[in-house]
Amino acid sequence: MSKIARVLILLLLVLATYLSFSTIMPTYKEDSSATKTSFSTDRALKHVAEISKKPHAIGFKGHTEVKNYIINELNKLGLKTTLQEGYTAGDWGNLSYASNILAKIKGENSNNALLLLSHYDSNPHSSLGASDAGSGVAAILESVRAYLEENKTPKNDIVILFSDGEELGLNGAELFVNKHPWAKDVGLVLNFEARGSGGPSYMLIETNQGNSRLIEEFTAANPEYPVANSLAYSIYKMLPNDTDLTVFREDADIQGFNFAFIDDHFDYHTEKDNYERLDKNTLAHQGSYLMPLLQHFADANLSTLKTNEDAIYFTVPVFKTVSYPFSWIWPMFAIAVLLFITLLILGFKNKKLDAKEIIVGFAPLLISLLITGVVGYFSYTVLKIIYPQYKDILHGFTYNGYTYIATFTLLTLAVCFYVYHKFKKLKTPNLVVAPIFIWLVISGMAAAFLKGASYTIVPVFALLVSFMIVSNQKNPNPFLLFFLTLPLLAIFAPFVKMFPVGLGLKMLVASTVLTTLLFIAITPIFGFYKHKNRLALLCLLLSLGGFAKAHLKSNFTKNNAKPSSLLYVLDVNSNTAKWATYDSYLTEWTAQYVNNTKQNHSNWLAIQLAVNTTLTLHMLLMLQ
Q1: What is the pLDDT of residues 152-184, one digit of tens each?
Q2: Per-domain residue ranges for the chain?
Q3: Are the C-beta atoms of residues 224 and 293 closer than 8 Å to each other?
Q4: Residue 410 to residues 237, 372, 416: CA-CA distances in angstroms?
Q5: For residue 235, which of 66, 206, 411, 430 sits 20 to 30 Å off, Cα-Cα?
Q6: H/E element, 49
Q7: Domain 28-316, CATH number (from 3.40.630.10, 1.10.600.10, 3.40.50.300, 3.40.30.10)
Q8: How sure is the predictor about 23, in pLDDT bands with cuts at 50, 70 and 90?
């Protein structure tokens, strides 16, 4: 491989990785003059601006104002709007008087209904609710307006539900599902949520049965920027995070789709969840889902969506949603294993492979995984020691979290380049055997224990083709090898960011390990780089720059405020009272009431939830 080719391929790999992130969602462009039948982000933003002027949790003055605004907007669309009101304890046992806002577009078939869902109450901890879930309300209002402009009668009823009391425990959803007569006709729910103020909107399925029919219809609806995969679906089912849609599934066996964005988690449930910080690209992404899905499911047969069959699915640019049935998992794995064995036999027969070098080739792989795994696992623990203020960020994602993801990714690459440089005498065909073996092991374990993740086998086939090429050609075409890395990068590179964003920086280990696995899968290319130590040095210097940048952004500011809490606890049995806080790093404000000799009792958080009386600038719980 020539020097020019090596430089070009490296630049193409960087570009492909960048595009795997940047092309998964639309780019906002001013569209206030868009046709009346099109979704306009600018028109939706006007709703967000009105909804997010004040905190509007149940009992707040702003709650009534937002409720009246939504009713007025629905009336402007010519829809008859009704309120469903009543007391409900919800999912958390918080009794409240919820006021659901309802409207219906009458369809030809009154036995089936598509329900568009988002909640309009904000979190009671001072949140302005621009993203959570003013963005969902705005996206639905704008999409319904655009749909009505087409002046056609849908086959199914279209029910619009802006639920209340979601932040208190899914109260409004429970009220509708269990007490409203329209609930029995709902065949599918499209729910729009947020757990941050930006980033791509992920599609997640809520179903008690299999997902294959839902995936088929989602693919047929053909949203332009789908972001979904069966791995995230499998993980989501294991987590305790609930949304309004969970009530529909659990109480009435009504399935549906969740669409939620999770970036910028530090704005979630705070006063920073405002109009200015809502990512316009993200709102455009919500609209890019809702319009085609609304048009498709308004006329689809909603009574055939339930099935016991599950599907593997993932999304990639150009091809959008790719899916295949669970029944293909083991046959695909078996074919990959047979191809691998065949290529090994042919390689030894043609004297292209050397058993000793193949065994030694496992050393750089295992060393890289060990080092990067340890670094990733202890990274956030060490960061909290260096920066104790991070301990009070309960959700675990700091304001400079994106910098840390990039920094540890670069550090991982530095380790991988350096370790593999130490084994530069190994021939590339022998070096590629270990990565194929490891990826096959991962695919086999996924097939056995986490079927939703078994699409890891897809890039293995591309890696096998690369192995065949480098084993039979002395000077393989580097651009062909690059082309074969595209499935790997398109499918898995976004996960490097997604895991720590979704689960906190404690999951930086997922980023470092996954980056290592991506690196070793590109050894058919990197095996031909003679000076990997130079690339290691470059990545190390860039990572040190990242650490410096993160350090400069580590302190709290007015725009990046410190999460804090103060709770007044009255013990009626002993007739005593005291101040309590979950803060580990006291500020001047909390130190006025709780001094540095305070005792940290784990039951303070339980007390805080029990009495539900707190002055906090950040939420205490993850996404409902």
Answers
A1: 999 999 999 999 999 999 999 999 999 999 999
A2: 3-21+329-552, 28-316, 565-616
A3: no
A4: 32, 11, 10
A5: 411
A6: helix 41-51
A7: 3.40.630.10
A8: very high
